[in-house]
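dude i think i finally got it to work??
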Amino acid sequence: MVTKADLIQHFSQILSKYIPKNAVEDCAHFFADKKIVLQVKKSRASKLGDFRSPRLGELPKITINHNLNPYSFLVTLLHEMAHFTVWEKHKNRVQPHGLEWKSDYSKIIFEFLQKDIFPQDVEKALYRHLNNPSASSCSDAVLNKTLALYDKPDDKFSIEEIRENEFFLLDGKRIFKKGELQRKRYKCQDIHNKRHYLVSDTVRVYKVDPATGTVIRKGD
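look at this
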């Protein structure tokens, strides 16, 4: 029989790889108490994480992209935990990012801000963010840029840094041509199947030479 202590240990082992050490215990207890599935997924262009209410015979599930820095991972995790607490109280009777979610999300973020987890600049951006929480932390430009300061350096570009009609690599294999911005996403064309897809303005990608598929390194 799986005990609560077993679940806490299980979630602690997973979370300790991705979030700051002094946030692990509280998050592990949350998942163990609520009996939620946690899955760490490969990078997705359209989202950083999501919450799925339980289907018949299944448990509720939270998924988070694996490649987020520890502070981005934690903020995304808390965002999805708030979705669960709203679902727990209201099921699907309220808007996904309505007043109920904003209230629960603000409470959860505020609790973690009291635990000396975040660097001072991230903490300041989060307090500012709580004035009007958005559907995505990345919709808050100040918070997004502050969190990005803690990303590991690499040859990726923000899609905003790529010019219209330039080419980039997505998911490690598909080459796209950047198109125009439509609200929060860019309309981009897959150069192989010629179809258009909406790509989030928060995604980071490699620039490529479309003829050879060669990655263009920063500084080249």
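The CA atoms of residues 10 and 151 lie 26 Å apart.
im so relieved honestly
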